[in-house]
């Protein structure tokens, strides 16, 4: 299979093109110049040359100390960077290598091609053909791709952010699933609370004093999720019905809210919490829960009941975040509407460039939606399409880089983050 990856294009908001907006770790983002006023340019009549220079020097001192006559050069032309770092928690929608590094599976398919083929040209541990929403957000704010926590090396500069997300992670503790007798289907035990413990362990390497941490986290974006989808997936895939899934929503929302609140206690003042995607449009649900009844599907071919469930989870999550925000007025808690952002290209795929559709997976082992549980993407019997950018769905469970790019754009440029994310110095193109 011959495939030419798409080139990364980013454009400065100010109109200047830039091939790689992400500064190297530890590299200053911009330099400020100064225009110095020369004494030769100050005219004072009717005095001797020596006296004139003395008077001019006195005027310069007065001007500098009183009004600040040094003019910054380039501050308007240089892009403004609202975030100095990003810290991410979540599951396979944002894992950049932690699952691979954990060794949870001996031969995980996400550790080899076709995963990673579109952009990186090799597998990175991302559950997609290329970049994720988190990667596009980092690019837009001029930050490097976040290194996975479990792959950090001694002495590595981590001050521009770290990723704690793990593919397969849940909001609830692993013990909950073992008590429910479905623990053996878990991909990982590295739940959201485990990821939080990693952050707490790393925190002394990020800042030492309370004042230092306050300044640093004031310019940091924390992302909690998407998380919770696997809590429902594991139960649904072993036979739980919608009613049983609904009973878990308060527990999942409470777990997400608890970790978000603990991050506030650690000093976070800007936190983005995404909701769940429209799972009724995913190839895995369309395959496993296929119905002979046309009334079970909406106009886009998605399963109504599962999308309604995702919306219910999102509604409860938003209500919990509103309460948390009310109790912490000094903190910006941003709800990221993944559902609304993704529903657009499930409704009108061709409008977003998905000429091959949005329901059928690019990589899979056949079937109406190219999802075969016995021949999943990367396994024997599966095959990847030649043009992933024309598909919204990558492997039946996760989306393509192209789909994630549209979601990221809609979060940064609007209107699917509430309140809006801060303006980014670079556009996603």
UniProtKB/TrEMBL annotation:
The keyword Hydrolase applies. SUPFAM superfamilies: SGNH hydrolase (SSF52266). Pfam families: Lipase_GDSL. Keywords: Glycoprotein, Hydrolase, Signal. The keyword Glycoprotein applies. Signal peptide: none annotated. Residues 1-22 have a biased composition (Basic and acidic residues). GO terms for molecular function: hydrolase activity, acting on ester bonds. Residues 1-28 are annotated as: Disordered. Belongs to the 'GDSL' lipolytic enzyme family. This is GDSL esterase/lipase.
């Amino acid at each position: 299979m011959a495939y030419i990856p798409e080139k990364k294009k980013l454009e400065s908001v100010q109109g200047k093109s830039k091939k790689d907006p992400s500064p190297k770790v530890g590299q200053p983002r911009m330099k400020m110049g100064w225009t110095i006023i020369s004494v030769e340019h100050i005219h004072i009549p009717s005095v001797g040359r020596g006296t004139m220079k003395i008077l001019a020097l006195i005027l310069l001192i007065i001007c500098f100390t009183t009004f600040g006559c040094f003019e910054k050069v380039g501050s308007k032309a240089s892009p403004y960077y609202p975030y100095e770092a990003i810290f991410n928690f979540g599951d396979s929608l944002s894992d950049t290598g932690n699952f691979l590094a954990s060794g949870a599976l001996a031969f995980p398919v996400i550790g080899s091609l076709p995963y990673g083929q579109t952009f990186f040209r090799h597998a990175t541990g991302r559950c997609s053909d290329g970049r994720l929403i988190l990667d596009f957000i980092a690019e837009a704010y001029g930050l490097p791709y976040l290194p996975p926590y479990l792959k950090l090396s001694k002495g590595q500069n981590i001050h521009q952010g770290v990723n704690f997300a793990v593919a397969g992670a849940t909001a609830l503790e692993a013990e909950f699933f073992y008590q429910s007798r479905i623990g053996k289907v878990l991909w990982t035990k590295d739940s959201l609370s485990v990821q939080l413990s990693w952050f707490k362990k790393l925190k002394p390497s990020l800042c030492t004093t309370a004042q230092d941490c306050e300044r640093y986290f004031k310019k940091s974006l924390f992302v909690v999720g998407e998380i919770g989808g696997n809590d429902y997936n594991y139960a649904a895939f072993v036979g739980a019905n919608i009613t049983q899934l609904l009973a878990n929503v308060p527990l999942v929302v409470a777990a997400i809210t608890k970790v978000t609140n603990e991050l506030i206690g650690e000093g976070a003042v800007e936190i983005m919490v995404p909701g769940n995607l429209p799972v009724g449009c995913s190839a895995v649900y369309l395959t496993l829960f296929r119905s002979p009844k046309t009334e079970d599907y909406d106009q886009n071919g998605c399963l109504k009941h599962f999308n309604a469930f995702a919306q219910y989870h999102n509604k409860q999550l938003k209500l919990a975040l509103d309460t948390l925000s009310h109790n912490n007025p000094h903190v910006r808690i941003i709800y990221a509407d993944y559902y609304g952002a993704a529903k657009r290209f499930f409704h009108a795929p061709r409008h977003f460039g998905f000429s091959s559709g949005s329901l059928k997976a690019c990589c899979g082992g056949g079937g109406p939606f190219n999802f075969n549980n016995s021949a999943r993407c990367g396994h024997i019997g599966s095959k990847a399409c030649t043009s992933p950018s024309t598909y919204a769905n990558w492997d039946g469970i996760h989306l393509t880089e192209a789909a994630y790019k549209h979601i990221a754009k809609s979060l940064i440029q609007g209107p699917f983050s509430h309140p809006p994310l801060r303006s980014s110095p670079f556009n996603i193109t």
